[in-house]
TrEMBL record:
Protein name: Polysaccharide deacetylase family protein
SUPFAM superfamilies tied to this protein: Glycoside hydrolase/deacetylase
InterPro entries on file: Glyco_hydro/deAcase_b/a-brl, NODB_dom, Polysacc_deacetylase_ArnD
E.C. no: 3.-.-.-
Pfam families noted in UniProt: Polysacc_deac_1
Region (Disordered) residue spans: 25-68
Record keywords, A-Z: Hydrolase, Metal-binding
Keyword set includes RNA-binding: no
Biased composition range(s): Basic and acidic residues: 25-56
MF annotations from Gene Ontology: hydrolase activity
Residue span(s) of domain NodB homology: 87-276
Organism per entry: Virgibacillus dokdonensis
C-alpha cells in the first residue's frame, strides 16, 4: 500500500514538473517578442529626424556673412566700415513676378550684377508665377516683400496692413523656403503700424532714392537708360543728378525697363559704380 502511494506521488510530481517546464517554454517567446519590440521602438526613436537640431543647423548655414553695408534713414546704402567701397548703387526691381522679371534676372545674372526683387503677392497665384520666383531665387537674387495688392498702406486699417504684409511673407516662404529680409511699401508710403509689422517680421524697411520708369516720358528704353545712368529726369521734374554713392535705384517689371536694363548696368559701371550685393547689407538679425 505504501509502495503504491509512493508511486502515485512520484508520478504526480513528475507531471507537475513537466507542466511547469512547458508553461515556461510557452512564456519565453512572449517575453522575447516584447523585448524585441522594445528594441525596435528604441531604434525607431534613434532614427527619427531631430527637427529642432536640424532647424538650428539650417538657420546657421543660411546666416549671411558679416555685413559691409546698411540702409540709412534716407534709403541710401552706406558702408559700415570706412575701408569698404562707398561707390556702389543698389538695383531693385519691384512688382514681380509679372511678365519680364525672369528675363531681367537672366540679364543681371549674365552681367554678374546683383539686385533685390520685390514681390507683389497677387503675382504669386499660379504655378507658373511661383516657378518664375523660384528660378529668380535659385539664380542667387534676394527676394523682398512689396505687399499683396500694392495698396497705399496708410489708407488701410491696421488689420488690413498686417494681412497685406504677412500674407506675402507666407507666400514667399512657401515657394523659396525662407522669409524676406527687406520690405518696400507701395508708393513709398508707410505707416507706424506697417513699420512695426515689418520689424516684427524681421524685415528692414527700404524705400529708394530715385527711379523713372513709372513716369510716362520715360516709358521708353532709350530715354530710361539715359535717366537712370545720369540720375537726371527733367521730364519728371528732376533737372539735377540723383546719382551718388549709395544710390538706391528703383525699377519695375516692365517691358521698357527690361529692354534698358543691360545698358543701365553697363552705363553705371562706366561711371565707376559697383552693383552692391544685397546679401552684404545689414538685416535686423545682424543689427
Amino acid at each position: 500500500m505504501k509502495k503504491a502511494i509512493l508511486v502515485v506521488t512520484f508520478i504526480f510530481i513528475g507531471l507537475f514538473i513537466v507542466a511547469c517546464g512547458s508553461s515556461d517554454e510557452k512564456s519565453q517567446p512572449a517575453h522575447a517578442d516584447k523585448a524585441e519590440e522594445n528594441k525596435q521602438d528604441q531604434r525607431k526613436e534613434e532614427q527619427k529626424p531631430q527637427k529642432e537640431d536640424n532647424q538650428t543647423e539650417k538657420s546657421v548655414v543660411n546666416e549671411a556673412p558679416n555685413p559691409k553695408y546698411k540702409v540709412s534713414d534716407n534709403a541710401t546704402i552706406v558702408p559700415i566700415d570706412e575701408n569698404t567701397n562707398e561707390k556702389v548703387v543698389l538695383l531693385t526691381i519691384d512688382d514681380i513676378p509679372d511678365k519680364h522679371a525672369l528675363d531681367m534676372a537672366k540679364t543681371l545674372k549674365e552681367l554678374e550684377a546683383n539686385a533685390i526683387f520685390f514681390v507683389n503677392g497677387h503675382f504669386l497665384e499660379t504655378e507658373e508665377q511661383k516657378d518664375m520666383l523660384k528660378q529668380i531665387h535659385e539664380m542667387g537674387f534676394v527676394i523682398g516683400n512689396h505687399t499683396y495688392s500694392h495698396p497705399k498702406l496708410p489708407d488701410l486699417t491696421e488689420q488690413e496692413q498686417t494681412e497685406e504684409i504677412v500674407r506675402v511673407n507666407d507666400q514667399i516662404e512657401e515657394v523659396i523656403g525662407e522669409r524676406p529680409k527687406f520690405f518696400r511699401a507701395p508708393h513709398g508710403m508707410n505707416s507706424d503700424h506697417s513699420r512695426q509689422v515689418a520689424k516684427e517680421q524681421g524685415m528692414v524697411v527700404m524705400n529708394w532714392t530715385y527711379g523713372y520708369d513709372y513716369f510716362a516720358p520715360y516709358q521708353d528704353a532709350t530715354k530710361l537708360k539715359k535717366a537712370m545712368v545720369s540720375g537726371e529726369g527733367p521730364e519728371a521734374g528732376v533737372d539735377y543728378s540723383l546719382l551718388k554713392p549709395g544710390a538706391n535705384l528703383l525699377m519695375h517689371d516692365r517691358e521698357w525697363t527690361n529692354e534698358a536694363l543691360a545698358d543701365i548696368v553697363k552705363g553705371l559701371r562706366d561711371k565707376g559704380y559697383e552693383m552692391v550685393d544685397p546679401k552684404q547689407i545689414q538685416t535686423l538679425s545682424k543689427q
